Prior knowledge:
Blueprint: E1 2-11, E2 17-26, E3 35-40, H1 51-59, E4 62-67, H2 87-104, E5 116-121, E6 139-143, H3 155-176, E7 178-180, H4 181-184, E8 189-191, H5 192-202, H6 207-211, H7 214-222, E9 227-232, H8 240-248, E10 255-260, H9 284-289
Amino acid sequence: MSQSIQSITLQTKSGDKLQAYWFTPEDPLIDTVKGKIVIASAMGVEQNYYRPIATWLAEQGYSVLTFDCRGIGESKSHPLKHYQCDIIDWAQQDYSAALDFTLKQTEDTVEAKLPVYWVGHSLGGQIFPLVENIQDVTKIITISAGTGYWKHNVTNLRKKAFLFWHLIAPISTALYGYFPGKKLGIIGNLPKKVMSQWRKWCLHPEYCVGVESELVRRAFMQIKVPLHSIGFSDDEMLSVTNMRDLHCLFSHQDKRLSELTPVDIGAKHVGHLGFFKAQFEDSLWPDLLLPELIQPGS
């Protein structure tokens, strides 16, 4: 099946513009798409990284949105030190604009009644409770998502985390006016307030709900959308404990966590970023992701 890619400009409620791409099936034999998907990226990861899986999903019959938050990738329109957004702004404004666009596509047609899926990678699989209208999503699928609490990070990272959070991150951010991740070879470049807020979260055992207002805790407690979290034992950043900690922040019962090892799924290595690489289009994507997008009775 072929697919088409449309360049989209999203606008947040605060008036900021975001670059996005809308991948849709393009096949005369297909009457309508099977569903709509938002791919919410990991911290500092540009949407281009998700183009292979977005293309593949469109070829399977799904419409897919990828996007960059303010200050990231193609949504960076001025020097990063001038951005004043934090992670909650990203969730409530940027992520929300992406979901709003996806929900409204082909409104007043049969497609408006199709299932809508949130595929969140790492950060995108952490902060979805703060996204406006997230309750209208059919299912949330998270990949390699857990709290960033440093004492629960994998052993190799934990040895470096204290130095990173107490010296490297605050000092480099103060010097540059943003976090220079690309220069340091760590994550990616991030707005100052994003890094400052993320640092506070990663130093707290309860991550964001232990740092932010009671409204944030309540949002996590009240989420009711079916949730399937998928994590891999060879993740270079998150331990199984990190993943379980995040899962416990959601109080509803319609949730499950799949803790997989590469050998379980016939792979040599997956890690924190690997799931979205094109090498898995004939294995992990159809075996792990596609079944999550099939509705009972379809």
